[in-house]
Design goal:
The structure is a single chain. This protein is mainly α. The protein is about 75% helix and about 0% strand. The chain is built from 19 helices and 2 strands. Strands 1-2 form a two-stranded antiparallel ribbon. Helix 5 packs antiparallel against helix 12.
Length: about 475
């Protein structure tokens, strides 16, 4: 009898739960805080020495306001990316000159002097060494600029304000407001963003956050976006406007990723992961002066160098694989040529090419090695500059030379745009895939989180390619 009463009470509570409306929890929470504010206003007196806290509140009224919150957010992001784009060019050129024009010929000469077999020299120097050199030259400067500035914003206390601004959008998309924080973590590393979803109590909303975190551009994809935008997007406008155009393109991709995150979250919350949105109570921490040098040191050690080392660890075997498939033959063609030719048709259909598709297969372990892989495959397979294993790639002294290689490989503005889109919409790296499995303990949801972005990437690139070709 008691069990029947309990069942009836639970059934009645579930019915009433849906009758009170979607805004009940938010209104209740807002009312509690409003009552608390009135009590504080009537009972607490402040003196002049506490004006600093009122100044914080005044700043928050601006940076979290309905009219200025998003423009300020995009302005700050744009400033960080602009400084990264402009600041990375010169050190990247210096590193490329050092590793490719100076050290590489020395290593080749040393191999010849000790009578090292050509295949061993090619495997170690033209394969492993060049992949590592390209990762350092292309990836290190942008990361060394972007991560410290992003960490300073985090230390200053601005990122919780970003979460506050985005809370309403996540709520409307059927996701949890705390997903804004996990999204911010994803901009550094998607694996870290997936782990950060533990702060979301609701299993349904946590799963939505895990599946959609890949739409945040991680550290391995920022340099790719910046490099391609600088080479191709910046080239279609006057030189004085090139940095600004590149900046807008990268910001556009980041915002598009957020749009996909909202859209996919909404679709999941209305279909396979249907449910009620949980209430999100966020207390904004006080602003505090960043510990500048400590923050710079920490971001360089904990983010830049660790990420760079991870990229090197994956780049070395990837470089070896690239050299092998570019020098081992099946009949008259190399393995790489067979694979690229086989994928070129599908690549053309979606505005890419076989080199890019093969590069993304080889680079599944880490997004950081996509561009070096593309460059090595383009040089080794097409024979640009003198044939496989030698040529222009070893004489680079600027980002413009990188652009020359890509254009010589048949790249157009459409190729660049679709690569930027596919860099946003493709499978997570192997580390993130493994992290998703550990956090969900589900092969099904891990497969969904891994395959869904690729399908979206193919669809988006196909549509862009067809519209582009019809228009131009």
């Amino acid at each position: 009898m008691k069990e029947n009463n309990i069942d009836k009470i639970i059934e009645l509570s579930n019915e009433l739960r849906w009758q009170i409306g979607d805004e009940f929890h938010d209104n209740l929470t807002e009312g509690i805080y409003a009552d608390a504010a009135d009590i504080v206003k009537d009972t607490v007196k402040t003196n002049d020495s506490e004006k600093r806290f009122r100044l914080d509140a005044k700043i928050d009224k601006i940076v979290t306001s309905k009219y200025f919150g998003f423009p300020i957010m995009f302005l700050i992001l744009g400033t960080v990316l602009w400084l990264t784009i402009v600041g990375a060019n010169y050190p990247s050129s210096m590193l490329a000159t050092l590793f490719l024009d100076t050290i590489h010929p020395i290593l080749k000469s040393g191999a010849e002097n000790v009578n090292m077999p050509w295949w061993l020299a090619g495997f170690l120097i033209d394969g492993v060494y060049l992949a590592v050199a390209w990762v350092i030259a292309v990836m290190l400067p942008p990361m060394a600029i972007f991560f410290p500035m992003f960490t300073l914003l985090e230390d200053f206390g601005y990122l919780p304000r970003v979460a506050f601004n985005l809370d309403a959008l996540f709520n409307k998309s059927g996701a949890h407001g705390k997903q804004a924080l996990t999204m911010s973590m994803g901009f550094g590393c998607n694996a870290a963003g997936v782990v950060a979803t533990r702060i979301i109590d609701s299993p349904r909303e946590r799963l939505i956050a895990i599946i959609t975190n890949n739409f945040s551009l991680c550290n391995g994809r920022w340099p790719t976006q910046i490099l391609i935008a600088t080479i191709f997007i910046g080239a279609v406008v006057p030189e004085s406007m090139s940095s600004f155009a590149s900046l807008l393109a990268v910001i556009g991709i980041a915002v598009l990723g957020m749009a996909f995150m909202f859209g996919v979250s909404w679709a999941l919350s209305k279909t396979v992961l249907k449910g009620e949105v949980s209430t999100f109570n966020l207390e904004l921490p006080p602003y505090r002066p960043p510990r500048f040098w400590k923050t710079i040191y920490t971001s360089l050690i904990d983010r830049t160098l660790i990420v760079l080392w991870r990229a090197i660890v994956f780049a070395a075997p990837a470089g070896a694989v690239i050299w092998l498939i570019s020098n081992l033959h099946i009949g008259d063609e190399t393995i790489a040529a067979w694979l690229i030719n086989g994928m070129d048709g599908f690549g053309f259909l979606i505005g890419l090419n076989g080199v890019i598709l093969l590069a993304y297969i080889v680079a599944i372990p880490a997004n950081e090695i996509v561009i070096p892989t593309i460059l090595m495959l383009t040089v080794m397979v097409t024979g640009i500059g003198g044939g496989a294993g030698a040529g222009v790639m070893f004489e680079l002294d600027s980002i413009n030379a990188t652009g020359d290689i890509l254009r010589a490989g048949g790249w157009t503005l459409l190729t660049a745009i679709n690569l930027m889109l596919f860099s946003l919409l493709h499978n997570p790296c192997s580390t993130t895939i493994y992290t998703i499995y550990k956090e969900t303990n589900s092969a099904k949801w891990t497969l969904v989180a891994s395959i869904m972005p690729v399908i979206l990437g193919f669809i988006v690139c196909f549509l862009v390619a067809q519209i582009w070709r019809l228009a131009f």
